[in-house]
Amino acid sequence: xxxxxxxxxxxxxxxxxxxxxxxxxxxxxxxxxxxxxxxxxxxxxxxxxxxxxxxxxxxxxxxxxxxxxxxxxxxxxxxxxxxxxxxxxxxxxxxxxxxxxxxxxxxxxxxxxxxxxxxxxxxxxxxxxxxxxxxxxxxxxxxxxxxxxxxxxxxxxxxxxxxxxxxxxxxxxxxxxxxxxxxxxxxxxxxxxx
Length: 194
Prior knowledge:
It is a single chain. Helix content is 31%, strand content 29%. The chain has 194 residues and is α/β, with parallel strands linked by helices.
């Protein structure tokens, strides 16, 4: 009996150290917008800013996979955002916890991150929050932790994709004829500028 309790204790410790469950993959592609801002390439930097970043690799991989597959016409580079057009995502919450009260128990999932798109000069083109919270009853025979976290993740990812789709085309700026920037562009021999 004592041995069984010890084994169960070790299993609980090992399971606790694994972090949040892996969420189901999600994509929200649109054939008309294959890459944000009319670009063909972006650097994607995902930073886990949580106080307790358990399962960080799983969270980062899920977000990266969802973004890359939602914009299949984009070439995504992994790395720091310095000196390149970049999408930076800072994860603040990515977890599901069992909440017990007098009326029963439920799984409370929260996924929150900040999305910032910036040009190669470091100017912010857009910045917004994706913050989703989901409450799910503790159903028997179901992986409620995974289901609640997946639902919150999918909602946050969908909000992120919609926000990036709304990013205006970066290369679409054309100075008005006769302005100093238009004259400089024409003098430099750049095509389509005058």
